[in-house]
Amino acid sequence: MKTFIEQLINGLSLGSIYALIALGYTMVYGIMKLINFAHGDIYMVGAFTGFFASTYFHLGFIPSLLLAMLVSLILGVTIERVAYRPLRDKSKISILITAIGVSLLLENGGIILLSPQVRTYPQIFKQHMYSFFNGIITISNQQIVIFVVSIIMMVGLQIIIYKTKIGKAMRAVSTDADAAKLMGVNVDRTVSFTFAIGSALAAVAGVLVGIYYNSIDPLMGIMPGLKAFIAAVLGGIGIIPGAMVGGLLMGVIEALVSGYGSSLYRDGVSFAILIIILLIKPTGLFGKNVREKV
User: Fold this and answer.
1) Averaged pLDDT for residues 30-42
2) pLDDT bucket at 290, cuts 50 / 70 / 90
3) C-alpha of 116 from chain center
4) What is this structure's pTM?
């Protein structure tokens, strides 16, 4: 039981990070029907921004986090304006290939500018362990920070989407962009805002990963980006609550596989989940089949 609870807590920590990245995927897909494969690399940029802010500028956790969000936000909006907006009316395959190209550009640009070596993340928090119920449950202060920050970000996103004017515009564009445009919604600004929010959330995940694993590198966004994409598909691509639940489920499943089996099987199980969910329920756990007139 103790091992199970420990792996469950580890899984929820990892799943919270996957959920933050998956939210960016699902938001962009909901608005543009685009899988932004560069999203994992924006997460990498956020991690490095937090690293430099805390290492060279000696900023604390909150300022480093805010700076990482700002840099990634600007990068995400720039990518949308430069790479995706000119192709918005073109074929989907063109914009998909562009997304892959942007991803490769960020990865190789990171290797050239930052070197491929692994960097040790500064220890922003001195690790403390807390035990509950006579040691049955053990949790670190780093895991508590990850839980708290992730919950704040997810709740904040829900407030933005359902309680603000720009959130209403996002939901309108997601439902029907042409009709929203006729009703006076600025589609370009709404899409840019979506990229900004998704990129900022990815930056938060990058900083949290640096704190949790104490190491980052320019290619760190590849596998978590794919895992977060699987989480978004698992929950229902384009559905925000689905991305949250999918991310948490992915983290828990991976932790249990590593704890009771081997970490070598972790990635294989993740991709097996993608294949199974596409075969059994392609719309995801929260998705519904929609009729289309042909």
Assistant:
1) 87
2) low
3) 23
4) 0.90
